[in-house]
Amino acid sequence: MMLGTEQPDRLGRLLTLLRQRAFAEREVTLSSGLKSNFYVDCKQVTLDAEGALLCGELFHALIEQVAPTAIAVGGLTLGADPLATATSIASFRAGHPRNAFIVRKEPKGHGTNQWVESAGLAPGSPVVVLEDVVTTGASTLRAIERARLAGLVVLHAVALVDRLEGGREAVERETPMTALFTRRDFLPDR
Question: Strands 126-134 and 153-162, how do they pair?
Answer without folding.
Answer: parallel
